[in-house]
Structures are given as C-alpha cells and as structure tokens.
Design brief:
heterotrimer; A alpha/beta; B mainly alpha; C mainly alpha; B: mainly alpha; about 65% helix; elongated; C: mainly alpha
Chain lengths: ~375, ~325, ~325
C-alpha cells in the first residue's frame, strides 16, 4: 500500500509554519493530572498541537505514554481521578476546557466525534446499533423518524454494512463490522474532526488495512480532520500527514510524517522506526528499545528517555530538554538544542528510505547490538 | 438486616476471570503492614475496628465494668435506671447493664466461630472444586449452588427446632453449615482465575503435591477474599444467631443479647414500659453488626479504589 | 432455551434437596424429636391422622427407610402434607392457603418497593459521585444492613404504636371488623401493614443501594458511557439508558437470590407484629411443635424463592439481548 495522495490543504507544508488561525483545533500546553492516593501523577505534560481542516495527524507511542489520555482530554471526556490541570483546548475558536457537559453537547458529535479502541466495549451492549444512532441524532435535535432512519442507513452503507444491521445488537456483529459501525456512527453529522483511539488495534492485519483505507477514503470524500492514535508505526506511515511521537506524557517529536520517517530526530522515534519492518526498504535487523517507560508517579531529573537512550550524554541526566524547532520539526532532545537546521537533508522530503545514514548527529544510531526481531515485536 | 454481603461484583454474578479480584495482595509484600495502613486511612474501617475492639474487651473482661451477676434474679423487678442499676432491672429481677455487658461474650464467640469455620469450609470446597476440576468441580459447585438458593433462615429454623434449645456450640455448627456457600462460590471463581497462572504451572512442573499447591500457592493469594468472607459470615452469625435466640430457639438460660430480647418480648417489655430492656440489647447487636459491616465495606473500598469516595475538587466538568 | 431447561433442571434438583432435608433432618436428630411431639398430641390426635404422622416421621413403622422416603416423596408431590396439629383438625394445605395472601401482599409489595427505591438511590449516588449524597449514603446504609429485622420492628412498635399511638401494633386487621372488600376494611388492612412494611423496607433497602451504587460505579467507567458523553447525550439518558440499564442486569439475579433472605426477615417481622402471614404461621408451628405444618411451610418458602429466581432469569433474558441469542 503506497501512500495515499495528500490533501491539498495539509501535507507538504511544514507544520510549524502554518498560522494558528487556520487551525480547526488548537491545543496548547495541555496537561492532565491523575489525583492518586500518593499525590498527583501528570500523565500528559504540556502538550501543544494544532490540527488544520482536513488534516490527518497520527500520534504514536508505547502503551502508557499518555496518548489516549491526551485524546480524551481534547474531547473533554476525562473522568475522575483524571482532570485537565493546565493549558487550553480551542476547537473552532471556542475554548472547551471548563465547559460543562451541557455546554459541550452543542459541539459534540455534530462537529467533533470520537471512535474508540474497542467497539465491543464502546457500543452499549443492550441497545441495537440503530437505537444508538438514534440516541445521537435525537440528542442533537433530529426528531423525524424517517430522517433518522434514512441517515442511519446512509452512514452504514458508507462503511459497507448492510442497513439491516441497524436492528442488530453489538454482540451480533463481527469485530470488523462493529468497528465500522462505530465509524459510521461518528459520521452521522459529518463532523469537522474525528478523534480515533486505536480504532484498528482489535482487528487482524487484513481487516486493519481495509478499515484504514476506508477511513482515508471517507476523509477525502468529506474533508474532516482526523487525530489518530496508534502504537503501530506502519499504519500512520501511509496514512497520516503529520506525526506526533509521545514519550512519557510529553511530545518527543512532532513533524511532517514523511520527514519524521525518513530522518527521525529523536532517538526514541528512531528506535520506534527500527522496531517495525519496512515494507519497501531493504532487509535490516529489527531492533527494539531496551528498557521500559519511566514510572510517571516518580518524576526523574533530566530527560525522561535518558535511561533508555542509545545516544545519552551526561547532561541528559540532569537537564530536562525543551522542545526545539529543527526545520519545521519539533523535537525534545538535547542533541538538537542548537540545531536550527537539519544537516545533510534540506527542508524538502528526503529521499532516504528505511536505512539510516550514519555519522550525522541528527540521524539515528546504528541498531543496538544483540536485539532480535522477536524482541522488537515484544516491545510493541 | 440485609444478609447479602455487598460485594463489588454483584451477587449471583461471579467475577470474571480476567479481572483480578480487587485487593488481592501481592505475595510476599508484608500484607499486614499494608493492611494496618489501609485500615487507618479509611474512616469506615477505623470506626469498625474501634467498635470491634471495644466489644472484644467487653467479652474478655466483663467483670471490670459490670459487677452484678448477669443471670441472678435477685433484684427488685422492673426498676428504672439508677445508680445501683445503671440501666434498671428486668421484670424477672435481673440487672440489665450486667446482662448487656456479659452478653457480648457469647455473641462474639458465635460471630468469630462462624466466621472462621465457614471461611475454612468455603476455602476447602471452593478451592478444591476449582483446582480438582471435572466431576469434583461439577459436584461441589452444584452442592454450593443448591445451598445458596435454599432460603437460609427457614432452614435454620427447621434445624434449630429439631435440635431444641441450641447452645453456643450448636448455634455455631448450624450457622456454619448453612452459611458457607456464598463465599465458597466467590473463592471458586478466584481460584479458577488463578488456575492457569505461571506460578502454579511452575509448582506443578516442580512436581509439588496438590495439597501443597493449594495451601502454599493458591490460598495466600486470596487474603482479601478470606478477610471479606470472615467479616460477612461473622455479620451473618450475629444477626441470624440473635434472631434464632429471639424467637426462642436458642438456650433460654444463656446470657446473650438475643436471649435478652426473647425474654423482653415474652414479658411484653414494650407494653409495660420497660423500654431499656428491649432497646439496649438490640442497639448492641446493631453496633456489633455495624462493626463487621463497616469493616467489610471498607475492605471492599481498599481493594477496589474505584469505589472509594472521591472529593469533588474538579478542575472542570460539572455534571 | 437450553439455558432455561438447565435452570429448570437445577431447580428440580434444589427442590429435591429441600425435600430430602425435610425427610432426613428429624430422623437424624438424636432421640427423634418427632417422638416427643407425638407424645404431646396423642390425646387429641387419633386414628388416621396419627397413623399418617407416624409414617411421616418414621415412628412405629415397619417400612424400611427407603420405602418411607419414597412414599414421603409421593405424598408431597401429590400435595398431601397431612394434618396440622396445632390447628387440628384442619389440613396443612388449608392453613397455609389462608396465610399466603397476607405474606404475598406485605412482602411482595415491600420487596419490589425496596428494590426500586434502593436501586434508584444507588444509581443517583453513583452518578453524583463525590456529591453530598454519595458521601453520606453508603456509610448510612452499611449500618442499616446491620439492624436485625425483628428489632427495628420492636422499635417501630415502641415509637408509633405504644408512644404515639398512631398505628396498630399487631395483627393484619382489627378483629372487630369483618373481612370484606369495603374501603373501610381495606384501609384498615393498609393501616396494619404500614409498620411491618416500613420495618422490612428499612432493613432491606440498604443492600440495594450499596450493590447498585457499586456496580454502577464500575459501569460508569465503561467505554460505552464515555462514548455516550462524547455523543453529547443528555445526562439523564446516559445515566439511565447507558449506565443504569447495564448495571442493573447482574443485580436482577441478585435480587431474586436475596428473596430467600427477605423471606427470613419477613418471618421475623411477621412474628413481631403478629401478622397473620406465612412467617408468623411458621413460628407458631415451631413453638407448638407442629412439625407437619413447619415442613410444609419450609417447602412452600423454598418453592417461592425458586420461582422468583426463575422469574429473574426470565427478566434478565428480556433485558439483556446477549443471553437471548446465546440460548
């Protein structure tokens, strides 16, 4: 599967150059804290992200890095003990943080909808899919029965499901169908932004692919923006315009997908890339990232990735890195503290694919010795 | 006097094997130190524990605060409260205060005895059923379920009627035999969820005997369920034991709160103005029962953080 | 369907177990208590009735235990429970039939009410997590679950009947009244039912509040509740249609199972209020060593509880589409 042609509005232009005014969603310095027995744990730490209309933004990271929490914080769906502890979320110019559920109701689903990881859990088991569609439409003032029935059938057909299944209960559908039904539900009002939390992770590889293609096609047809969270780099490589790599609640790297893929700046991004096989590139030894993410309840000094970093320097253990701009890519790594530009490659999409070019500070190190493909897989 | 314990998983529904049973302490982490810390941080647990300790002290040393003979019918009848008789006397000429204080012992013996014994039976049957599997599981599980749906109190009444004048030991036995099934079912579910865990497989591969595996490997993972079982069954014993005594199926000569209420009812204490005779023992049953119930509920909260009270200090979102 | 057949089989088995207990318990006890009972009633009870009694309790018969057992099973399954001793010469069946409506009215209404109110309170407490209700109600109801049924009855009598004299303390209706379907009589019956009903309500509601609150708290963390919020549904709809409807399913079976306990409580409440229902009857049988009546009542209560559980199974199947298709 080669990359789908990008929409005119989004890809190709370095992200940071876009004026915020053109964004549909502006997240700035958003923090989320879990109030735990032994004090607060910051699961999302000052994350900023702009999403433009029609853009497809991928968010990747290991489990527990805060990517799902970030999504729920954006959609104002956190439940205690989690709560937004700082920063702002502006959707189409309106600040969402601090709004009550009834205030949010006007925005929800009409303009901003959500697709969750497991439709089995996200669909109400005691209601038919049709009834759940109906609930959503009635909540936003659609009263006519005929209209509800017509639109419900229409969106189901869009995702390739027989409208007869409106009468089915979630458990009567297959895994792939449930997931599609959920996407259909998210499409009911053709929103401007759909937030997707690992919508394909419960499916097998073939079903994953076809669902991704479907999402991309719908996106091109209707022009909504997508924020797509996954732990599977190969999914986003083909479908997303921009990519955000999260580590331990923070943005590790944020840039145009192709750029990040071809020359990752953060050693963590590089590690993630080496942990999955490239479909087109030459055969290389797969490596994982040794170690595990830090315990967020015990904040550490310096860079959070330092204990696992193959390129760690002494300073990394004491100085927490800020987010540095390198040619339109934001990266949180001291290696790029002064790196205003990317050495070797220009701002345009580099032609390098798969393997890394050694000897350049901005490029990933050679694969760490000794790790095998199996270990790499288990890292995911 | 609702008898069903209030579990985080609803009654009748066995906790799904995927979900770890709340609060099962990790092995080898000094559970007692953690338990004490947990109890101190939970107000319900603290209240329950303090109440229970007071009752245990009463049961151990009743003579310290009550000097009168509890059963001697030697005082003037139906006196009101006074310096000599703090809570007055009964229509039979007994000192109510002395009876109330001395009554703690038998109730506690019954509560603790039934709590321990029925937990032991529940462990034996529940774990054996889960671990042995096959026909054993089928048979024991059926036995458990049948006992679970036969109405308990009527059955207790029938048994106690045939026994006649059940003393402490008989009450403990009868209450134990009828009360273990609910816990056994929970323990079986927990044991089933453990059956294929690595550490059990390891023990099996090492060639340990079944009994060893059950006692050393499985049971320690169930600490919290065992404590909950003890508390539930103790509460059940306090309430149903007293009820049996109240309707006259206990030994009418024992000194206990249920028996006090039996005599109070038979002498029309309410109609003849001897209110304390009926109020005091009942209130004590409520307090002791509440001690067990509060500890049990708190224990559920400690094990399952989701149930704990949350403080409403929200940065956002007001429903 | 297979599920129901299996449940039905289970109930038949349970019934058999209860019957067997009934048969063997008196025979297992040291010094056969039936013998003592017979001695007492030898005077008034004669002829056929005594013979039947002897057969029922295995006294003076030359039949083997096995054949006694089977003839007992045969008698019970054809509805022959023998003659009541205390209400001699009325038959056990007749005595029981008089008591059933009282208990059905009192316990049935109160239990459904307690379940409804308790569940509702639990739903709201969990929904307003961290609110005032949620911080006060759970400890309060934990304590009410520890109140003995009979004692709350005594206290209600003390307050409302003895002290305030607002309500009658005993029996199902004024004995001066002639039972009939007149408003006056029905009002009288309701007046008498008020205190026992309240006693039952107070002592059973706590369990429902607490179980419902706790299952509801777990359900509120489910993805479909989050999803419902994301859809912008009104709060009430999320609470009832998405959270409560799912949380209540496991409680339905629990509700039926606990009926066994409620019946136990009802026995005590009826006893304290001299309420002419099944429970009061049972204790009268016990106190007067009317074993045939006691045995029959025990069986009746067991059947009632089993039927209730079966109804709960049906209800669960109706409300939970998953059990329906699983068959």
């Amino acid at each position: 599967m080669s990359s789908v042609p990008a929409k005119a509005s989004a890809a190709g232009v370095p992200a940071s150059r876009l004026s915020p005014a053109g964004s549909i969603l502006e997240v700035s310095d958003l923090s989320v804290t879990y109030a735990m027995e032994r004090g607060a744990v910051t699961a999302v730490d000052r994350v900023s992200l702009d999403v433009r209309p029609g853009e497809f933004v991928g968010i990747v990271g290991e489990s527990g890095c805060g990517k799902s929490t970030l999504l729920f914080a954006i959609a104002q769906l956190l439940a205690p003990p989690a709560a937004v502890s700082g920063g702002s979320v502006a959707f189409k110019g309106t600040s969402l943080v601090g709004m009550t559920d009834s205030q949010l109701a006007a925005v929800r689903w009409k303009d901003l909808s959500v697709v969750m990881q497991s439709a089995m859990n996200a669909l109400n088991p005691v209601k038919t899919t049709g009834a759940q569609f109906k609930d959503a439409m009635r909540a936003h003032g659609v009263r006519s029965r005929a209209e509800i029935a017509e639109r419900s059938a229409e969106v189901l057909k869009m995702v390739g499901i027989d409208p007869a299944h409106l009468k089915s209960f979630p458990h009567q559908l297959s895994g792939g169908m449930r997931q599609r039904a959920m996407i259909a539900m998210a499409m009911l009002f053709t929103p401007d932004l759909i937030i997707m939390d690992e919508p394909t992770s419960a499916l097998d590889v073939v079903a994953q692919r076809s669902l991704m293609v479907q999402i991309k096609e719908l996106q091109q047809q209707f022009g909504f923006a997508v924020i797509f969270v996954t732990h599977d780099m190969s999914l986003v490589s083909n479908f997303s315009d921009r990519l955000m790599v999260m580590y331990a609640g923070q943005v590790a790297e944020l840039g145009v997908t192709r750029v990040v893929f071809d020359s990752p700046l953060h050693p963590y991004s590089a590690g993630l890339l080496e942990a999955f096989p490239s479909i087109r590139g030459p055969k290389v030894a797969l490596t994982g990232i040794p170690g595990s993410p830090p315990d967020l309840s015990r904040p550490q000094e310096g860079c959070r990735f330092a204990p696992r970093c193959p390129k760690v320097m002494d300073r990394c253990r004491t100085t927490p890195p800020a987010l540095y701009q390198v040619d339109g890519t934001a990266v949180r790594c001291l290696l790029h503290e002064h790196g205003r530009f990317r050495s070797g490659a220009g701002a345009g999409p580099p032609a390098v694919s798969g393997t890394s070019v050694s000897g350049e500070p901005a490029q990933p190190a050679a694969p760490a010795a000794g790790t095998t493909a199996d270990e790499a897989r288990s890292e995911q | 006097m609702a008898m069903l314990p209030v579990p985080s998983t609803a009654p009748g529904q066995v906790a799904s094997p995927e979900q770890p049973v709340p609060g099962s302490m990790r092995r080898g982490r000094r559970p007692f130190a953690r338990l004490i810390r947990a109890v101190r941080s939970n107000r319900k647990a603290t209240t329950g524990t303090v109440l229970l300790v007071i009752f245990v002290l009463l049961a151990l040393f009743p003579g310290v605060i009550a000097h009168d003979q509890p059963n001697a019918q030697i005082y003037p009848r139906s006196l009101g409260p006074s310096g000599a008789h703090l809570l007055g006397t009964t229509a039979l000429g007994q000192d109510i205060f002395a009876q109330a204080v001395n009554g703690a012992r038998q109730v506690l013996i019954i509560a603790i005895g039934v709590g321990l014994l029925s937990t032991a039976i529940a462990v034996l049957i529940g774990v054996a059923a889960a671990y042995l599997g096959g026909l054993w599981d089928g048979g024991l599980n059926l036995l458990t379920d049948v006992l679970l749906v036969i109405p308990l109190f009527p059955l207790l009444i029938v048994i106690a009627t045939y026994v006649q004048n059940a003393g402490t030991l008989v009450l403990v036995i009868v209450l134990t035999l009828t009360g273990w099934s609910y816990t056994a079912r929970q323990l079986r579910a927990q044991a089933l969820s453990l059956r294929n865990r690595d550490f059990l497989e390891a023990a099996r591969v090492r060639g340990e005997r079944r009994l060893y595996i059950i006692v050393v490997e499985i049971i320690p993972t169930m600490t919290s369920l065992l404590v909950a079982s003890f508390l539930t069954n103790a509460l059940y014993a306090v309430l149903f034991g007293s009820s049996l005594q109240f309707i006259g199926l206990g030994d009418p000569n024992t000194v206990s709160w249920g028996t006090m209420l039996y005599w109070a009812q038979n002498n029309e204490a309410l109609q003849t103005g001897q209110y304390l005779w009926a109020i005091v023992p009942g209130l004590l049953i409520v307090l002791l029962g509440a001690a067990f119930a509060l500890m049990n509920y708190a224990f559920d909260e400690i094990g399952n953080p989701a149930l704990r009270p949350v403080r409403r200090k929200r940065v956002q979102r007001a429903r | 369907m297979r599920f129901f057949l299996r449940r039905l089989g289970f109930f038949v088995l349970t019934m058999w177990a209860a019957l067997t207990l009934n048969f063997f318990l008196p025979r297992l006890m040291p010094g056969n208590p039936a013998l003592a009972m017979m001695g007492k009633f030898r005077g008034p009870v004669t002829g056929q009735a005594l013979k039947a009694l002897e057969v029922a309790f295995g006294v003076n018969t030359h039949q083997s235990l096995i054949s006694q057992y089977f003839s007992y099973l045969g008698d019970v399954s054809t509805g022959k429970f023998g003659t009541s001793l205390y209400f001699y010469p009325e038959s056990v069946g007749h005595v029981i039939l008089n008591a059933i409506p009282w208990t059905l009215g009192l316990v049935g209404v109160t239990t459904v009410l307690a379940f409804g109110l308790g569940t509702g309170t639990g739903i709201v407490a969990a929904w307003r997590r961290g609110g005032l209700a949620d911080s006060i109600l759970p400890p309060f109801f934990v304590i009410t679950t520890a109140i003995p049924y009979f004692w709350i009855g005594m206290m209600l009598i003390l307050i409302f009947a003895v002290k305030l004299q607002w309500l009658p303390a005993a029996f199902g209706y004024d004995v001066t009244q002639v039972p009939s379907f007149t408003p006056a009589f029905i009002g009288n019956v309701l007046q008498h039912a008020l205190l026992p009903a309240f006693a039952l309500l107070v002592t059973t509601i706590g369990t429902w509040v607490l179980t419902m609150r706790n299952t509801m708290v777990s359900t509120l963390a489910e993805d479909y509740v989050r999803m419902a919020r994301a859809k912008g549904l009104p709060g009430r709809r999320i609470m009832l249609d998405y959270a409560a409807r799912n949380a209540i399913l496991p409680n339905l079976t629990g509700f039926a199972m606990s009926l066994g306990f409620v019946v136990g409580g009802a026995i005590l409440v009826e006893y304290v209020f001299n309420y002419p229902g099944v429970g009061f009857m049972l204790l009268q049988a016990v106190n007067n060593e009317d074993y045939p009546l006691m045995q029959a009542l025990f069986l009746l209560i067991t059947v009632a509880v089993l039927v209730a559980i079966l109804l709960a199974d049906v209800a669960t199947a109706v409300f939970d589409p998953r059990t329906r298709t699983r068959g």
